[in-house]
Amino acid sequence: MTHANSTALIGSTGFVGGNLDAQYQFSHRYRSTNIEQIRGKAFSLVVCAGAPGKKWYANQHPDEDRGSIDLLISCLKCVEAERFVLISTVDVFSEPLGVDECSDPTRRAQHSYGQHRYLLEQVCQELFPNIVVVRLPGLFGPGLRKNALFDFLSGNNVDRIDSRGVFQWYNTERLWSDIERASAANISLVHLATEPCSIATLHEEVFGAPFTNVTAGEPARYDMRSRFSTHWNSRGDGYQYAVDEVFEDMRKFVARAKQGEMERSR
Prior knowledge:
Elements: E1 7-10, H1 15-23, E2 28-30, E3 42-48, H2 55-60, H3 62-76, E4 80-89, E5 97-99, H4 112-127, E6 131-136, E7 138-140, H5 148-154, E8 166-167, E9 169-171, H6 175-184, E10 189-191, E11 197-198, H7 199-207, E12 223-224, H8 243-265
Parallel strand pairs: 1-2, 1-3, 3-4, 4-6, 5-12, 6-10, 7-9
Antiparallel strand pairs: 8-11
Helix pairs in contact: 3-4, 7-8
């Protein structure tokens, strides 16, 4: 039996899960240390942000990563959910350029991280008829602990950041409202796509200074889009958020982060 007011968040202590926990009041919270306890339970809503988020680690340790996904899947097979939301990633695509919700992630060979998370998507779509799969790009928001923006803030490994890289950045503080918007529109798979920008442009716009650095190899490039962007705006360009909106959010985030660092250093 599904309990009307019983809701669950899987991955509650992770970066995305922690942001969702701050935006919605869940009655049950699960993480890797207690995920087995979800077996046999029924909920009106389950939000799963439980897939490990370290892409580099998953690709270096594919068997361990697959084991984590398999454990999560085995637990989900023993759960009933009236509504199910899966937080996934644009990295199900090995080349995320010009892709939308109808693009096939398996068209090109996937790395282990993307392959395992696409498997999780497929299993959840089979298990839960009323599902929203949310694919996210690069992220920023409260609790950020990795990526180029964090490195700029912390002055960490900046020499490893290629200014030519082109990324998409999503503000996690918008996530719950965007999930609700997708659910209300009966969208079962959505890309939360933001207009791409180069690292050089980001640094100029957000930190107010030029940044030029070229590393070995080709820089990363992301440009995922959404067929459903008109549910968010009338531009029809395939992006829910324009780059100017992203920069505005990012400047506020950076200002708060710097203020918090100043207060901690007093």
